[in-house]
Amino acid sequence: MATGLTVPDAPPRPEPAEPTNARRRRRLSHPAGIAVVAVIGFILLFAILWIGVRGFLAQRALNDAVPSAESVKAAIGSGDIAGAGRAAAALEQHTREAAALTSDPIWLAAEGVPWIGPNLAAVRTAAAASDTVAAQVVAPLVKEGSAVDLRALAITDGRIDLAPIVAAQPTVAKAATAFDTARASVASIDTGALVNPVAGGIDRLHGVLDKAAPDIEAIGNTVRLLPSMLGAAGPRDYLMVAQNPAELRSTGGLIGAVALIHAENGAITLQRQAAGTDIGPWPTPVADVPLSTQGLFGPLVGRFLQDANLTPDFPLAAATASRMWTTMYGGTVDGVVAVDPVVLSGLLKATGPVQLPSGDRLTSANAVKLLLSDVYQRYSEPAQQDSFFASAASAVFSRMSAGGVDSKKLLSALAAAGESRRVLVWSAHGSDQKVLAGTTLAGALPQSDLASAGIGVYFNDATGSKMDYYLGTSVAAGSAVCRADGKPSTVVSVTLTNKAPADAGTSLPKYVTGGGTYGVTPGHIRTRVAVYGPADGFLAATQSDDKNYATVAGVDKSRPVSLFTVELAPGESRTVSVQFLNAGQTAPNLKVVTTPTLPGDGTTPDVGAQNTVAPIVVQCSRVVK
């Protein structure tokens, strides 16, 4: 039936929706999209290949630098300055290439990529540091040649030519700064975020720079100090004090002989000699000795030259000795240099044997025994002994001043003596002393820091004789965290042994045994030992055979001190242990210094031999907490 209405056509059915992935594929299949992807892929591939190839070339350049560096060292060691220059040029070429290969824009941009970036940055830093050392340290120092080669220093007619050393000072200062900068940049690399091969390479480079640091420092200190100390800017006068380890004092031995040395524009002359007993004593201290020092070592420190170095603080002892000399003889003392017969034995390796007025032939092999034992057998009067010592010192000084000394052996002996604390130097000039203060030559009290505790073990004769020629000493130390506050506890063990013959009381001269003058049985050895703990720490206990041992407790420049006495008959030995509670450290690391002593068996120690400090495994159950 018609109704007049029309029915509209049904709407067209919509086409099925195209899947999203299909649309993406269709877009990507567009020629422009393919081109973009291809370009990005090509860039990434190019960057990877670029970095890989340049990294490989940089590694090869650094590997090639190693033989060049070894050639520089070997050439310098043999005195071949020209050869060192050629090797230094090759070294610089290799490191410059490595630095350039790892510093282009693509490499730098890739350093921002996670994981791989820190490794690339580390390689670039290492290459740059190596180039800095080669170009700004090795090359300039080699160019200066003999001016910075300490072994080339020669004494001719009593004089050292200072002009080349003065001229080299600016170059050496710049080289030292560049080295410190390079070393610090390598030390700043966090190897924990690196892959093993890169981390291992960084660690090796760090080790090489650490090993080279003392040599760079030695060159810098010498070039800075030598001209001023040898009178380049005006005359200087120094006391040369001979310490006798047969009668121990904290810094090495009783001051038995003194000489005044004059230095002016490199010329060195012997002005005056005196026995230690010729100077003083005084009824009251003539120098400013702190009350804490007098409390530990008595008032004699400032009254008797022979006791000025009862304190282990060499700058204080040297300043006291200087004041005693000027009080006695007037004039000005610009510094003090302390040596002992072991140092003399080392110097004789450089000079060769020296003939003495007595007819003796002083050699490296017999110097220690002749000066510390035989002389007392031969001469019973102190005046005769002093005369013999003075003639020996004068003969050696004359031999060295005449020239023709083996400079390499001389430097080697002095360097070894400095490391073993058998040569100590103090300057009255603040600028010089500031440089010395950072070296083993300064003889200052041990320094503590956050990372390690400074410990000192010092020996003073209390027999009043020369029996320490027969004293054996050994030191052991250890530290562990045993307390709830996380601070370490430190244990120091000191063992003394009397190695004198069983009949020493009758077979040795009275001058050697003391003859009982100070209440010590002839043949016995009485020693006062001062053990210094870490700065701001606390003395916890002093024991022997697990029992408390009599001690005098004190403090010296914020360091706790245990001062105790040990007396031994021939063949006897005793061990005393001292415990400290550390306050400024969180790790159980120690730096231990001791008085340089003799073996006690009549043998001559090597000039560089140091008193070995054995490790102790600290048992927390046995320490005071």
Spell out the key features of this protein.
625 residues; alpha+beta; six-stranded mixed beta sheet; five-stranded mixed beta sheet; globular
Description:
This protein is α+β, with helices and mostly antiparallel strands and 625 residues long. The chain is built from 16 helices and 18 strands. The relative contact order is 0.08.
Query: Roughly what percent helix?
Result: 40-55%
Main sheet: strand order: 13-12-16-10-9-18
Q: Uncertain segments of ≥5 residues (pLDDT<50)?
A: 1-11, 22-28, 39-47
Work out the strand percent.
15-25%
Instruction: Describe the largest sheet.
Output: 6 strands, mixed
Radius of gyration: 35 Å
Shape: globular
User: Helix/strand/pairing class, anyone?
Assistant: alpha+beta
Number of helices: 16
Distance between the termini: 115 Å
Count the E strands. Answer: 18
Whole-number mean pLDDT:
86
